[in-house]
Amino acid sequence: MWSLANPTVFLALAQRALPWLAAATAALFAVGLWLSFAAPPDYQQGETVRIMYLHVPAAWLSSFIYGVMTLAALGTLVWRHPLADAAQKAAAPLGAGFTFICLATGSLWGKPMWGTYWVWDARLTSVLVLFILYLGLIALWRTIEDSGRAARAAAILTLVGAVDLPIIKFSVDWWNTLHQPASVFRLGGPTIAPELLWPLLVMSLAFTLLFLTLHVMAIRNEILRRRVARLTMIAAAQGDSLTLQLAAGAAKG
Amino acid sequence: MSRPFHEALAMKGAMTALFLREWRIARRIGGGASTGAVFFLILVAIMPFAIGPDLNLLARIGPAILWIAALLSTLLGLDRLFQGEEEDGSLDLLVNGRLPLEVVVLVKCAAHWTASALPLVVASPLFGLMLALDAKPLGLVAASLLVGTPALTMIGAIGAALTVSLRRGGLLMAVLVLPLTIPVLIFGVAAASAASGGGAPFLMPFLVLCALSLATIAGAPFAAAAALRVARD
C-alpha cells in the first residue's frame, strides 16, 4: 500500500495492469451473461428471475464501494496516505452509479413481482439513503475549492454515513420488509439453488472487476488532472511560456 | 485544592459563559430563535392550504406535519450555528482555546437547541390543535418533539461544521444533513402518530428517539469538531 503512495509508481502500475483488468472484466461478463441466460428459470418467478443477475451484484457492489470509501477516508484522516483522497473521490461517482443500477433494476423487478415499482420498506429506504449520501459526497467534493480540505471534509462525512451500511445489511432481519431476507450471505449458508447461485457469483465477480478497472482508471485520471492543475497554476504564477506549453501538451495528451 | 479540581471549575465557568453568550446572541439578533418559531408557524399554516380543510385527513397526518416543520425549522436555523464565528474570526479563538473543541460544539448546540427548538416544542400543542389533533395526546406529541429535536440539532451541527467555510453552503448542508435525520423522522412520526391514536405502541419509538438523541449528543461533537478543524486550515 505504501509503495503505491508515489503517484508515478501508481501510474506505471496502472498502465501495466489496466489492459489485463479490462480483458478479465470483459471475459467474466461474457461468461456471466451466457450463464445468466443458460440458467434455468425460477419455479415461482419464471424468467423474471434473470434480473437478479444484474440487481444483486449491483447491490453488493454499492455497499462494497462505500466500504472502500470508508477505508480510503481512514487512510486520509488517520494514516495520511497521499493517494487515499484520490481513491475516495474516484469511487464516489462509481458507487452512485451502481446504487442507481441497483435501485432501477430492483424497481423494474418489483413491478411484475410485487405489483409496485416502489415501496417504503426498510431495505429500499436505507439503500435510497445510501444513494443520497453518495450524491451529497460528490456535491461536497465539488463545492469546496481547496482539494486537501475537501478531501478531509468528505472523509469525515463518509465515516459518519458509514452507519448506514449495517442498517442496509440487517434491515431485512430487523423489520418486516417486502424485500426478501438474505439468501446468500447468511449464517446457515446460502438457500438459493446452485444452478442459480453460480451465475450470480460469476456476475458478482464480473461486476467487482468492472469496478476495479474503472476505479484504477479514475484514480489515474485524478492524478493526471491534479498534475495539469498544478502546471497551470505554476504557469499562471510565472507567466512562463515553456511551462504553458508543457501544461497545454499535458492537457492534450 | 488539587489541579484537576481547579481545571474542572475553570471549565465549568467557561462553559457557562459560552452558553450565556450563545443564548444572548441567538435571542438578540432577529435571527435564530424567534424567526425559527415564526417559520414553524408558517409551515404549519401552509400545509392545510395545500391539503385542503378535510379535518380527518389533517388529524391523521398532523403529527407528520409537525415533525417535518420542526425538521425544516431546525435546518434553516443551523446556518448561524458556526457561520457568525467564522465570519468575524472568533472560530479560531474557540478552536485554539483551552476549552476542548468538542465541549465547545456541545455547549453551542445546547444553547442553539434551547433558543430555537425549545420554543417549537412549547408551541407544538397549540399548532396541533390547529391541525385538528385531539387535545389529550398533544402532551405526548410535544414529548416526542422534546426528545427528538436534540438529535436533529446534533446531526445538523455536523453538516453546519462541514460547510462552515462555504459562502452559500445552506443548500449543500441540507443535502448532507437530511439523509442522516431520516431515522429520527421515522421514529418521531411513529411516536407522535401512536400518541394521537394509532394502534401502534408509543413507548418503543419514544425510547428509540431518546436513544438516538443520546447517541448523537455523545458522537456528533467529535465529528463536528473534526470538521471545524479541517475547515480552519
**How would you describe the oligomerization state of the chains in this entry?**
heterodimer
As a percent range, the share of helical residues of chain B equals over 70%
When the domains of chain A are counted, the total is 1
Number of helices of chain A: 8
Radius of gyration of chain B: 19 Å
Computed CA radius of gyration of chain A, to the nearest angstrom: 21 Å
Structural class of chain B: mainly alpha
Unreliable residue stretches of chain B: none
Output the helix-strand order of chain A.
Answer: HHHHHHHH
What is the N-to-C order of secondary-structure elements of chain B (H for helix, E for strand)? Answer: HHHHHHHHH
Mean pLDDT of chain A: 88
| N-to-C CA distance of chain B | 39 Å
Query: What is the total tally of β strands of chain B?
Result: 0
Shape of chain B: globular
Q: Structural class of the helices, strands and pairings of chain A?
A: mainly alpha
Give the integer mean of the pLDDT values of chain B: 87
Shape of chain A: elongated
Query: How many distinct domains of chain B?
Result: 1
Enumerate how many helices of chain B there are, as a single number.
9
